[in-house]
Amino acid sequence: MMLQIPAVLDAHELARFRNALEAAEWEDGRATAGHQAVTVKSNRQLPLGSALARQLGEAILQRLGTHPLFIAATLPRRILPPRFNRYEGGGTYGTHVDNALVALPGTGEYLRTDISCTLFLSAPEDYDGGELVVQDSYGDHAAKLPAGDMVVYPGTSHHRVNPVTRGARLASFFWVESLVGPEAQRRTLFELDSAIQQLTADHPGHASVAQLTGLYHNLLRQWSTP
Questions:
Q1: Distant-in-sequence, close-in-space partners of 63: CB < 8 Å, separation ≥ 6
Q2: Which of 178, 186, 194 is CA-nearest to residue 219?
């Protein structure tokens, strides 16, 4: 499931992020690429140990912690601290699949990359190219979202970032390990949750709401890994 999460950051927060990132020191993005991805990756990233990355990443996680659509769609168990990248001057990231496991900094543990997330920080009119293209059995799906919006999609997906031929594309990217690992089960729960919310809005107090809510939570109990 590929889904747009709107308004993760507001205009004030975006201005603060962009001002800080424009003054930041970047490194070659291949430093964090896997053995296959390193051959198709051409961008820059904030160093993993960067204090700025930690500061901005914590602000993103605080906003996502209260974002109902993000929580409903991902059912997060653990989230990798957000990272930041920059594409310009033809920078691109060819078709690849994200690593299945990513080390959690300072823990000695690994996070399973069930869900990939890209938060757009640059306005789409400020750069040419730079679309995130996600492939599935129905074809290619391109995302070039308004600044502050985020797209989430299965970590198992082949995807790429098209070359940026004008301007600069700033974004944050990270992964979620979900309480519900299989993508089909997450989709079922999300669609059921969305239907319950719509039924509640259309028919407040309808007896089916309690029954369907119970079904949702029983499925979550059955499928989740605490």
A1: 8, 9, 13
A2: 186
The model's pTM: 0.95
Q: Supply the DSSP string of 93-131, one letter for each residue.
A: EEEE---SEEEPTTTS-EEE--EEEEEE-S-GGGEEE--
Query: What's the DSSP call for residue 137?
Result: T
DSSP state of 23: T
pLDDT at 33: 67
Give per-residue pLDDT as tens, 60-81: 999 999 999 999 999 999 999 9
Q: What is the pLDDT of residue 95?
A: 96
What is the pLDDT at residue 226? Answer: 80
Does residue 42 carry a pLDDT above 70? yes
Alpha carbons 77 and 61: distance in angstroms, whole number: 13
Rounded Cα–Cα distance for residues 18 and 115 (Å): 25
Q: Are 214 and 29 in contact (CB under 8 A)?
A: no
- Residue 123 class from Cβ within 10 Å (0-12 exposed, 13-18 middle, 19+ buried)? middle
Q: Any idea which residue has 């989709």 for tokens? A: 187
